Amino acid sequence: ARAAGGLPRGSGEAGCRRLSDQKPVTPDFTTDVNVAEIRLSKPKPKPKVSNPAGTWEGLQGLEERTKGSLISDTLEEMEKDEEFKITAKRLKEEGQAKMTLEERKSRRRALDNLGVPDFFTFLEDQKVAQDLSRKPSEVLQLNIGLYCNQACAHCHVESSPKRKEMMDRKTAERCLRILENSPSVHTLDITGGAPEMNDQFRFLVENARKRAPHLVEIIDRCNLTVLLEPGQEGLADFLAKHNVRVVASLPCYSSKNVNQQRGKGVFDRSIRGLRMLNDVGYGKEGTGLYLDLVYNPLGGFLPPPQDALEAKYKEELKETFGIEFNTLMTITNMPIKRFADFLVRRGELEEYMELLVRNFNPSTVEGLMCNNTVNVSWDGKVFDCDFNQQLGLGTGTFIPESEAFGLYAAKETGGLTVFDFSSVSDLNNTEIVVDSHCFGCTAGMGSS
Questions:
Q1: How far is CA 193 from CA 394, 398, 440, in A?
Q2: Which of 123, 134, 343, 434 could form a disulfide with 349 if both were Cys (CB 3.0 to 4.6 A apart)?
Q3: What pLDDT score was predicted for residue 46?
């Protein structure tokens, strides 16, 4: 007897039919016979659903995770990090000047191996019209201290909670006097460290426009996590009250990449800081309170196209956290200080320098920050840019790179301080100091 399906009863295959193996019965009936090699893919993530009431999925438990100061966590990480400990030991034994000189030599050796001349000669070879002398300055940038609640892996100023260098009132007052006497300056750019943790930050913000009515904009280079530090509870309101433009570092819209580069727990605190700024109007259309984010790559590669990445940031931050901001700036990592150490440890310095040279963009030269910016360090020394500051290359100390590693470079170069002039116009036509790190500012979309 046969069952309805045509198989003999008792065959052990009751209720089943054996189909032809010659061809697929249906379009997707194509599973390979090597079933032992089949692997399941990870489940697809649930779609992100934003809620106009503000209960975005990325906010669950955020306030609880971000209580207290970040400083103790940062110090604990620094004590565990072997690279931080090695650098601290070298700094103690060799001193900052010697370490900086060796860093510059390493970049020069890498470029020599690549057959690349010094930056000034390179510009000439590229037939890029350049006048490496200072024009009327429009930006006064103050690095008011190296103290910071973070210790980011790529920090070009090597800030951390262990750095105690801070601008004093006398120097801050002198900077305001120069600003007052410099009608060409439309922007006061305050950076650090975490500049908000310096005693002079609020003094400078409160008095800048009073003393210099021509000033159009004040910028705060903010790490976002400072908004959650004890004693900074009213910071967001203070910034809004004085219409300070916030330019904030956020090297990714995911926690893994941010925490890897900037420290454990930094992403959560950054997100909460951004929401605090949004709450007082920053990043919102029509408020006049501008909130810009800054992306820099995790490793030795150039950033993606700025417009496309900005759109991705806005999508991710809005859908997951309800965060709004105005613009995203992408910058190239400069091969100096902690990022230079990172490249050397990985044996990638020469490869990275080649990347920068290969991606030289002549259109960046005219807009280089050294053309229109006066940079001042916490102790009042003057530089053509923030990167030169970290390398001790003071304004007015230009020397050809080919001669830069002899006796002259081993000595303190001196240079100008804010007590040597009364207006930024006094620096007009001073020769701009360049070095091998300048390739970072001219690669791709450049750096700032």
A1: 20, 27, 21
A2: 343
A3: 54
